[in-house]
Every structure is written in C-alpha cells, then in structure tokens.
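Retry 2 of 3 after timeout on previous attempt. Resubmitting structure tokens to design endpoint.
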C-alpha cells in the first residue's frame, strides 16, 4: 500500500511539474504575441496622418479583442503613439469620438455598419478577426500560432480619410512580414 501511495505521489508531482512548465511556455508565447500585436498596431498608427488632428489619435479598442489589455496599458518601455479607450459596443465607440478603431470579434459586416455611422470623419480601422481583409477594416492582423502579420485593404484605406506611409503598405504586401 505504501509503495502504491509513493508511486501516486510521484505521478502527481510529475504531472504538476509538467503542467507548470507547459503553462509558463504558453504564457511566454502569449506575452510575445501581445508584444507583436502592440508593436504592429503602434507602427501602423505612428505612420498614419489624419487631416485635422493635433496631438495623439484616440484608438478605441473593442473589449472583445484578445489583445485589449496589451494595446491599452503602458508597458514602461515605450510610450503609446495613441490614447487608448476600451469600448464595449458601437454606441460607446461613436460617443468616444475615435480617430482609430481596433475591432476584436466584430464581423466585417458589423465593421461596415459602424463605418457607415462615422461618415465624414477620417477613421483608421484595424481588426484582428478579418483574415480575408476584403471588406471592413483597412488593416487586418493575421495571427497564427505565435506569428503576427498584417494585410491591407486598399479600397477601405482610400475611403478612410487618413494617409498612411507607403512604407507600411509595402510591409503589408510582404507576406513574410512579422
């Protein structure tokens, strides 16, 4: 009976060690993905110009985004090139007077609906759940495993009222960009 107990204790200890090791690896990968998403979004916003904006643009981040916390908090290493605001729905986004919007799980159709309500204002749109990037947002993040890339919808960008550096557009064309 004692040997059986020791074997069970050994197995439990081994399982706990494996669980903790795997959890740290997943957390490390998630932290790297958070950094990549933040870096790409910050880069896109940094190289975007609004026609009538003085100061930092306000980036409204939908609460449905997996990366809302990474995009909205200061990390102590670099200052954000935008003022973040977490929004929960279209009404909050409209009331916040956003200069840019980061969509989470909102569909391209939902994105178009919000865009139509913003008519007449320059607005940069970025999404994390629009892999085809054909309708809706001007920039779409492509997040696969621990790689983060982005693509651009030039039609949506031309209607957005903002100007984005051609260098950013070249990076979007390069499918190897991370």
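Retry 2 succeeded. Sequence:
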């Amino acid at each position: 009976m004692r040997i059986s107990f020791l074997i069970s204790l050994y197995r439990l200890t081994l399982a706990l060690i494996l669980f903790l090791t795997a959890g740290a690896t997943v957390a490390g990968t998630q932290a790297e993905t958070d950094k990549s998403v933040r870096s790409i979004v910050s880069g896109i916003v940094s190289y975007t110009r609004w026609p009538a904006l003085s100061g930092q643009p306000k980036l409204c981040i939908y609460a449905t985004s997996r990366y809302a916390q990474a995009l909205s908090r200061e990390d102590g290493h670099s200052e954000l090139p935008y003022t973040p605001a977490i929004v929960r729905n279209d009404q909050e986004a409209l009331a916040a007077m956003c200069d840019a919007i980061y969509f989470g799980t909102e569909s391209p159709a939902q994105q178009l609906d919000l865009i139509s309500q913003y008519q007449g204002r320059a607005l940069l749109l970025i999404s994390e759940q629009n892999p085809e990037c054909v309708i809706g947002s001007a920039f779409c993040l492509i997040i696969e495993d621990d790689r983060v890339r982005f693509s651009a919808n030039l039609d949506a960008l031309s209607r957005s009222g903002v100007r984005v550096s051609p260098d950013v557009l070249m990076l979007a064309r390069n499918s190897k960009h991370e």
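Attempt log closed. Residues 35-173 form a domain with the Rossmann fold fold (CATH 3.40.50).
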